[in-house]
Amino acid sequence: MAAQEYDYIVVGAGSAGCVLADQLSADGRATVLVLEAGGHDRRLWINMPIGYGKTFYDERVNWKFEAQPDPGLMDRRIYFPRGKVVGGSSSINAMVYCRGLPGDFDDWAAAGNRGWGWSDVAPVYDRFERRVDADGTPAAEGGPLFVSDVRRQLHPMARHFFAAATQAGLPLTEDFNGPAPEGVGRYHINTRRGMRWSAADAFLRPALRRGQVTLATGALAERIVFEGRKAVGVSYRQGGTRHTARARAAVVLSAGAIQSPQLLQLSGVGPGALLQRHGIAPVLVQEHVGAGLQDHLAMSYYYKATEPTLNNVLSSLWGKLRVGVQYVTTLGGPLSISVNQCGGFVRSHPDAPQADMQLYCNPITYTLAASKTGTQIVPDRFAGFILCFQPCRPLSRGQVEIAGPDAARAPIITPGYLSHPEDVAQALRGAQLIRRLENTEAMRGLIRAPIAPRLDTMDDAAMVEDFRNRASTCYHPVGSCTMGPDAATSVVDAELKVHGLEHLYVVDASVFPNVTSGNTHAPTTMVAHKGAQAILAAARG
Ligand SMILES: Cc1cc2nc3c(=O)[nH]c(=O)nc-3n(C[C@H](O)[C@H](O)[C@H](O)COP(=O)(O)OP(=O)(O)OC[C@H]3O[C@@H](n4cnc5c(N)ncnc54)[C@H](O)[C@@H]3O)c2cc1C
């Protein structure tokens, strides 16, 4: 049977892939095939924001990777969730919407990537975002990605966190995505009328309705098909059958920071020794594919509280029923928002050139429990809350490598956490900052007792050891197919085309030259918009 032919093939229907499907087909003529290994996203626990805790370990929608034992983290293996479903990780993430700080993107431009500085990317965000005010009314102007102000839904305990921040000398801000992103405040989130608003909701479904986009679910891309150095298609497996589809204009990898480099390597584009080890014929030896992996580490401290928190609602059947009814009847209440309700971008020391620490304050504590259906997140039965920090701009880099030539086999993820000494220094500064917050009058009033391990009993060395023992990914892997001007040190150019190959692009979180200071869905969406424009421009010749 002749291979199906499209103008574009996009691998992965995640944060980036959904945007590409929309933008590449926007002229009403070009045809796009989107290959998504996961299944449909019409699931209660995806649509309902609090369902985050349910999809976190659900293999029906989550790749559930594990990283290699990490020397920086006492040889622990970190659990590495990634969305395996239409919408990708935007269907299972915590919905926090942060563009990143201007300096993050100015550093992209300073690394030689023309057109990626803050003044270039800010207008792109403006075009695709649509702000929703605290009443739930969307702005008259804007794009399809809803960014909601949930100030009315915040748990009342947030007021103590804001007071503690002020007492600790930290500034407050109204909007992390506004003109003054630095400070402590509430997170805006991707919801619409109390429901998750993923990349699939914002971008893919409107594109599917136009009719030129074909979405293949349960379709695992196995290899890029090349003619010489030109990508001409993708071979994929769907329902036990192998297919090949051809692309007239371009193949776009949007399989995320773990699987875009995996697919390149499987297809013969990667480090020479790795390809040889797995018997893969090289199309292009490219040492940097998979090499620049970066991720945020987050560290949480747990406290028993002197006043009720979400635990008091979510740990009892009656409480769950009550907020469940509230949700069903009003699409409001605690089930309608993220557990990451407030936090901040702040400087942990006066010499920091920009905010260097992201904070979270969540009105919940929990334990993990094994059950017949897998690991479950179980809220504690006492009032409790979490303070958490995440160093904004870690410098450590790790890598992603295939474990073998079989596309179904999970890649080897080696994050290299804390391999850069500055990241160890930042871990300590973050812990000291949380202790500063703990010591404020407002926090002393809210904390009934810290839950061990207690920061107040630790010296500097113990804080770092505790970080190595307990810190974990904040689920923001990027940089494994870095953008840069030089093929010797990067994988794609500023148009996101793979150096040395034709008709092949990587457009997703893999291309970040450095991780942005905050959560990575927003900047990935921005990257996809700019990537789509570059691909369309190239196709126009
Ligand atoms: C648990 C969790 C919580 C998070 N919380 C937040 C948050 O609150 N705010 C925020 O901004 N960011 C958050 N993130 C990060 C953010 O969601 C990601 O950075 C972003 O979604 C990455 O987009 P992407 O397009 O690069 O990859 P993804 O969205 O992961 O998309 C990749 C897609 O490709 C598919 N795919 C992979 N390999 C293949 C293949 N071979 N064939 C076919 N399909 C394939 C995958 O199934 C997936 O659908 C979170 C992530 C996770 C996992």
Brief digest:
Helices cover 28% and strands 24% of the residues.
CATH H level, superfamily name of the largest domain: FAD/NAD(P)-binding domain
Shape: globular
Q: How many distinct folded domains?
A: 2
Indicate the mean pLDDT.
97
Structural class, by secondary structure, is alpha/beta
**What is the level 1 CATH name of the largest domain?**
Alpha Beta
Q: Could you tell me the radius of gyration in angstroms?
A: 23 Å
Percent of sequence in beta strands = 15-25%
Q: Could you walk me through the main structural features you see in this protein, from its secondary elements to its overall organization?
A:
The radius of gyration is 23 Å and the shape is globular. It folds into two domains: 1-61 and 79-150 and 194-294 and 398-409 and 476-541, FAD/NAD(P)-binding domain; 151-187 and 297-391 and 418-470, Cholesterol Oxidase, domain 2. Strand 8 (191-192) and strand 9 (195-196) form a beta hairpin. The strands form eight sheets. Strands 1, 2, 10, 11, 12, 13 and 26 form a seven-stranded mixed beta sheet that branches. Helix 1 runs parallel beside helix 7, helix 1 (15-24) packs parallel to helix 15 (521-540) and helix 5 (118-128) crosses helix 15 (521-540). With 541 residues, it is α/β, with parallel strands linked by helices. It contains 15 helices and 26 strands. Bound molecules: flavin-adenine dinucleotide. Flavin-adenine dinucleotide (FAD) binds next to helix 1, strand 2, strand 11, helix 8 and helix 15.
